[in-house]
Specification:
The complex is a heterodimer. Chain A has helices at 3-6, 48-58, 104-108, 184-189, 194-199, 206-226, 228-237, 240-243, 260-265, 286-310, 330-340, 354-359, 387-401, 416-430, 450-460, 472-484, 503-509, 513-523, 530-541, 545-554, 556-568, 578-590; strands at 14-24, 27-33, 37-42, 82-91, 118-119, 125-136, 141-149, 173-178, 270-272, 278-280, 316-322, 346-350, 365-371, 374-379, 409-413, 439-443, 464-468, 494-496. Chain A is of the alpha/beta class. In chain A, strands 1, 2, 4, 5, 6 and 7 form a 6-stranded antiparallel β-sheet that branches. Chain A has a 6-stranded mixed β-sheet with strand order 8-11-12-3-13-14, with helices on both faces. A 4-stranded parallel β-sheet of chain A has the order 16-15-17-18, with helices on both faces. The chains are: A alpha/beta, B alpha/beta.
Chain lengths: 600, 636
């Protein structure tokens, strides 16, 4: 992971830093900034692939990639007249920060054509262009036009900008799309694939070819002379010479090809598992093959970059990658982010993997969701958080709980008691495990820690709930977090344990003494013998409420599952405590009634 | 093509970075030195940054591009064009910096500017009296012309422009007229030709960051014909060349011709040397014309070209043929012999068809030669005259005026001229804001006597408003209507012949434009504007041997030139022979131009007899051209 920071990558001096998309599939009218790495997360069918495809079209894919399905269809069922994709490219310094001027290498090449560069109000260079796609319904044909934009106005008026002349093809700004169906076996065979393109460039000096072919002939002779069968065939077929003298030297038996051009055609990739034997890639699982496919892409891009460097040309690859985690083991998924951060140029990646999202920086994540027929894109608000808060989110959410970004609702609370007990009550309430509904329960680790979580989930539009202790300190910290997030302190999703109590005291107030005492007894298992058990039970049953509360509080962790199970075992109207029931009822109102079904 | 450079030429071509003033006399290879320096930098030095090469005419730019056409990625690595067209791209790209959201239309014709100024004077109560002091239309026109000249003078020097704008220059009338003239231009969203440079200069000087983009894009700046720079042009060059690795100005102080433009050779000789610390280099030897060519030219105008510095001998041959068919056959055979021979001691590299031109006074002279060439393997093209829109027929001119109204309905000049040409005498304002409605009104006002013209024109304009890409179809429709008219015997055949030629011309302009502009980005306005700056006129695209009238090759040179049809009534033209005087002087000038298109070998031919289409039996005896006789008389 640290490899990315340890060895500074060669800078490409530019960044595609902003994109605006109108009417491309579910992306009706969106704007997004792009960094070196941009991770797209969100449910299926929220527009991640559309975003990748739209940008790929803008950055160089040809119009054959367009289909009539690409035009936004409004709630009224009408297809949009045209797709607009605006892209802005800015110069960046070695640290990736936007700077004043494009590097001379870009001006001397792609960006130096007549009047491509514009200036912003601070006289900083940028180059923006618009890709407009229209659909001729009669001919069922598409036109794709790229025009230079003189201006990058505020988002509200972006579609009104007049363009200025045609944008040339930017040869050194290369766009690559790798979809989820990649497989290196196909790549090895397809000439258009990255592997195919590399293999078509195998160049061996002429002198070396002659020598290698000589060695191939010797090798053939050796093989044939060692094999009785091959020897027999050679002797037998040599008879052809007598009947057809034009054959000259006669028939050659070639176990391996003697022409270099045939040899390089059949380049295979062997992959060793480290245990000594090596297998051709065909024998490996899809995970290896999918991953190998990405690695060949990296090989291709770095080769292209090397050629550009040799020519003194700039080179900025932009990779669009769908689900790099496909078929990979979780541990392998964890290393994907590290691999992604090693490339040059920019990478825009859609992922469903909490392991990948968990490795990313907060600012690299774009959260996709759907509002009716339109996609909504949201950035995690890393800028609004202080360093400590970001650290906390990275530690608490991203590193260990990356799946929270993929949750459909979040329940927050202070401590571990709730973390252990709430899922038990929720399962009982819904009759299935909360994760089937995408609900996650998160202990924020003490009072005062709510804010970063509220901020994140508020930002990405995932419903969140709080179950707070009723003690004054706890209530204060919830209120402080709400105020800091700019929300009402009477937030409908915030639930507080009544009577100023923590959960244990509340349960006692509610009259669950029997269940709690049973749970404490259970907690003391195993006993030495039956008398011991009886003696303990009698002792516990004799506890006053304050004895019980004190015990529960001093054994918070560990106790909670016991009493939660004891309470749901009542299996009557009170098998979920009222305060928790209220929370779950509220969630029922806000959430879709059944677990989400992934779209195909 | 191998290029043989003289040591002096090579010195400049291969000079290291730095600023140079090349003082070059006529024929010393000015353009060649510039083009070869571009080639040297791109191919030998393999520089990565771009080169900006500015010329004064489209022809010179085309010539330069043409000579460099085999340099890979030439158009990516250079901008070669006129200073006006380069400035136009600056305004197009960065006009917003000085408040021009869209590229304004350009009025390039003097008559349009005069009409605009006349409006300024008639519409202002104070100014009107100054115009009315001149009692004849001619005197008023002369007055307006002089005022315009003063405006132009001011617009060609940034300081003068500020002075007149601030009222520190000229009379009170001139200052007021100038302000209102400028307001008229801007309210009609047009600019005049002088404004192009002025606005570009404003952009670059007011927003140094924009100048910075050009500095970073172009590290080399070359300017041809620098003796003709005026103050604004030089100011532009000074800004553009600020951080250049090498600024090279090439010019011949003895050839400074555009004096009335506010141009002065002092910008090149004094200011450039001072501002850039340029080193001065001289090119004296004449490589343009061989001694043979100079002798022929000097026969018409004595001592007009210095014979002493001419380095090469060349050839001059005068051939009398029995008739025009024999003349054509002699020319084609000689061309074949030259090509087959492959080379000539006085010509660099192999002799190829593109280095040969056949010239004549009018293009009908080529007819018999074209018949022979069509059957031969000699590739050729007939060169069209260059310059802005050269529309000659009434139909063509009306069509163009209508297009101008369509492009800019606020443009009253062309609206008024259109009315005038359609015989409508009273001057009114357009009632509608919709261009097509304006044209419809004008045409219906013109009435039935013009319907042969207005009906087909309305159809064409309508078609173009609906879809500019129907241009060719609109031309087809116009052609059909002209032909129908001719067949029915209505109207003058001369006009119909001209109209058909105009339609062909417009077609070729469109085809050239549409090849440059993507289908969706084409617009009538852009087409018309490019026609104004002369960018779309097709000419250098022609391959092989060049056939051209004298007027179509001004400023061009060929290693080998044939001039055909040198007979009285042919060259000089019979109309000039008839009227004599200045018309005849002009013919002599044209003959001089024709002779000096040749660099090395010159062949002058004439038919002693001519076939007449109406008399198949007899051939009319011809007399040798007086110009030819004069050359023969003065040759040693």
């Amino acid at each position: 992971m640290t490899a990315a920071t340890a060895t500074p990558l060669p800078t490409t001096h530019i960044r595609v830093d902003a994109v605006r998309i109108g009417n491309f599939r579910s992306l009706r009218n969106i704007e997004m900034d792009l960094g070196t790495i941009t991770l797209l997360v969100g449910m299926n069918n929220t527009g991640k692939t559309s975003f990748l495809k739209a940008l790929h079209l803008a950055l160089g894919a040809d119009r054959r990639l367009i289909s009539s399905d690409d035009f936004f269809i409004g709630p009224d069922g009408n297809e949009a007249a045209k797709i607009l994709i605006d892209v802005r490219i800015v110069p960046v310094d070695a640290d990736g920060n936007r700077c004043q001027h494009f590097d001379q290498s870009w001006i001397d090449n792609d960006f130096g054509g007549s009047n491509l560069i514009s200036l912003d109000s601070e006289d900083r260079d940028f180059l923006a262009f618009r890709t407009q796609i229209t659909h001729d319904v009669v001919k069922n044909d598409f036109t794709l036009e790229r025009q230079i934009l003189p201006d990058w106005p505020p988002f509200a008026t972006w579609q009104e900008v007049a363009t200025r002349g045609r944008a040339p093809r930017f040869e050194q700004l290369a766009s690559f799309f790798i979809d989820a169906q990649r497989d290196v076996i196909g790549d090895l065979r397809a000439r258009g694939s990255y592997m195919g393109k590399l293999l078509s460039k195998i160049e061996i000096p002429d002198a070396a070819i002659a020598e290698l072919e000589e060695r191939l002939r010797t090798l053939n002779d050796d093989i044939v002379s060692q094999s009785e069968v091959l020897n027999h065939i050679r002797t037998f077929l040599a008879g052809l010479n007598r009947t057809l003298p034009s054959f000259g030297e006669g028939v050659e038996i070639n176990p391996v090809s003697t022409k270099m051009r045939d040899v390089v055609k059949g380049v295979g990739v062997q992959f060793s598992d480290g245990a000594g034997s090596s297998f051709p890639l065909e024998s490996h699982g899809m995970g290896t093959r999918s991953w190998a496919s990405l690695l060949t892409f990296d090989a291709y891009v770095s080769w292209t970059g090397k050629l550009a460097e040799r020519e003194g040309l700039p080179f900025h690859p932009v990779l669009f990658l769908e689900e790099p985690e496909a078929h990979l083991h979780p541990n392998a998924q964890r290393s994907v982010y590290g691999q992604l951060s090693l490339g040059v140029g920019q990478r825009i990646v859609s992922t469903h993997s909490p392991y990948i999202a968990g490795q990313a920086n907060l600012g690299e994540i774009v959260y996709f969701s759907k509002d009716g027929v339109e996609s909504k894109l949201r950035r995690l608000p890393s800028a609004a958080l202080d360093a400590e808060e970001i650290r906390k989110i990275r530690r608490e959410v991203m590193r260990t709980r990356g799946e929270l970004l993929f949750a459909s609702a979040i329940v927050l609370f202070e401590g571990e008691t709730e973390e252990q007990a709430l899922p038990i009550f929720a399962s009982h309430h819904w009759n299935h495990h909360p994760f089937e509904r995408g609900v996650a329960f998160v202990g924020v680790g003490g009072e005062g820690n709510y804010f970063p979580f509220i901020r994140i989930f508020e930002a990405i539009g995932v419903p969140w709930f709080i179950l707070s202790d009723g003690e004054q300190n706890a209530c204060n910290s919830v209120r402080a977090a709400l105020v800091k997030a700019g929300l009402t302190t009477a937030h409908p999703n915030v639930f507080t344990i009544p009577n100023g109590k923590a959960i244990e005291g509340y349960l006692i107030d509610e009259g669950y003494q029997a269940e709690l005492k049973n749970a404490v007894t259970e907690f003391h298992k195993p006993f030495h013998n039956a008398q011991h058990e009886q003696a303990k039970r009698t002792e516990i049953m004799g506890w006053s409420d304050s004895d019980l509360e004190a015990y529960l509080k001093s054994n918070k962790t560990g106790m909670a599952p016991h009493w939660a199970k004891a309470i749901i075992a009542r299996n009557d109207a009170r098998s979920i405590p009222t305060a928790i029931k209220n929370l779950l009822a509220k969630m029922d109102q806000l959430l879709i009634p059944t677990p989400p079904v992934p779209n195909p | 093509m191998s290029i043989q450079l003289s040591p002096a030429q090579r010195g400049i071509v291969e000079a290291s970075d730095g600023h140079y003033l090349v003082v070059a006399s006529a024929g010393s290879g000015k353009t060649r030195v510039l083009t070869e320096r571009v080639r040297h930098l791109l191919e030998a030095q393999k520089i990565r940054s771009r080169i900006l090469a500015l010329t004064f005419t489209n022809k010179a730019a085309e010539e330069m591009r043409h000579r460099l056409q085999n340099v890979p990625e030439l158009s990516d690595r250079t901008y070669i064009g006129t200073i006006h067209s380069f400035c136009q791209t600056i305004i197009e790209a960065h006009g917003t910096a000085i408040g021009y959201a869209a590229m304004p239309a350009i009025i390039e014709r003097e008559s349009d500017r005069i009409a605009m100024l006349e409006e300024v004077f008639t519409q202002s109560a104070e100014l009107r009296s100054y115009l009315q002091r001149h009692d004849t239309a001619q005197a008023r026109r002369k007055f307006l012309y002089e005022v315009l000249e003063k405006f132009s003078f001011c617009k060609r020097d940034w300081k003068e422009f500020e002075a007149i704008t601030n009222g520190d220059w000229g009379s009170q009338v001139e200052v007021q007229a100038f302000r209102e003239y400028q307001e008229h231009l801007s309210s009609q969203r047009v600019i005049d030709f002088d404004d192009i440079l002025l606005l570009a200069y404003r952009i670059l000087s007011e927003r140094p960051a924009i100048a910075g983009i050009y500095h970073r894009t172009y590290h080399y700046l070359f300017v041809d014909e620098a003796q003709d720079l005026n103050a604004v042009q030089y100011a532009l060059i000074r800004i553009l060349g600020e951080n250049s690795k090498s600024v090279v100005l090439v010019g011949d102080p003895n050839q400074a011709i555009y004096g009335f433009n506010g141009s002065s050779k002092r910008f090149m000789l004094d200011d450039f040397s001072q501002d850039f610390g340029a080193s001065q280099v001289e090119l004296r030897e004449n490589y343009r014309s061989s001694r043979s060519v100079i002798r022929a030219a000097n026969a018409l105008y004595e001592c007009s070209i210095d014979l002493d510095n001419a380095a090469l001998e060349g050839e001059l041959e005068i051939v009398a043929c029995s008739d025009e068919e024999e003349e054509a056959s002699w020319v084609s055979k000689r061309i074949e012999t030259l090509i087959a021979g492959g080379s000539h001691p006085d010509i660099d590299g192999p002799i190829t068809l593109d280095r040969i031109a056949v010239l004549a006074r009018n293009r009908y002279v080529f007819a018999p030669l074209q018949v022979i060439l069509d059957d031969s393997r000699i590739e050729y093209h007939l060169r069209q005259p260059g310059g802005g829109a050269a529309l000659e027929s009434d139909l063509g001119r009306l069509f163009d005026l209508g297009v101008r109204v369509l492009v800019n309905p606020l443009n009253r000049l062309h609206f008024s001229e259109l009315r005038r040409r359609l015989g409508i005498s009273n001057d009114v304002l357009a009632k509608s804001k919709d261009a097509l409605a304006i044209l419809t009104d004008v045409c219906s006002e013109a009435g039935e006597s013009y319907s042969d013209l207005t009906h087909p024109l309305m159809d064409a304009w309508r078609m173009l408003v609906l879809d500019v890409n129907k241009f060719t179809r609109a031309m087809d429709a116009l052609e059909t209507s002209v032909k129908e008219l001719a067949v029915s015997g209505n109207g003058a055949n001369e006009e119909q012949l001209l109209a058909l030629a105009d339609i062909d011309f417009l077609r070729s302009v469109w085809s050239n434009y549409s090849r440059r502009a993507a289908k969706d980005s084409r617009s009538l306005a852009q087409f018309r504007n490019q026609m104004s700056t002369g960018e779309t006129v097709p000419n250098v695209d022609g391959k092989g041997l060049t056939l051209a009238t004298v007027h179509a090759v001004k400023g061009l040179e060929y290693d080998i030139v044939f001039i055909m049809g040198l007979i009285e009534g042919g060259f000089p033209d019979y109309r000039a022979v008839k009227s004599g005087g200045s018309a005849l002087t002009e013919e002599k000038n044209d003959a001089f131009v024709a002779l000096t298109r040749a660099k090395r070998l010159l062949y002058l031919t004439w038919p002693q007899n001519k076939f007449m289409p109406w008399d198949k039996e007899n051939r009319a005896v011809q007399r040798k051209s007086r110009f030819l006789a004069e050359i023969e008389r003065k040759l040693p």
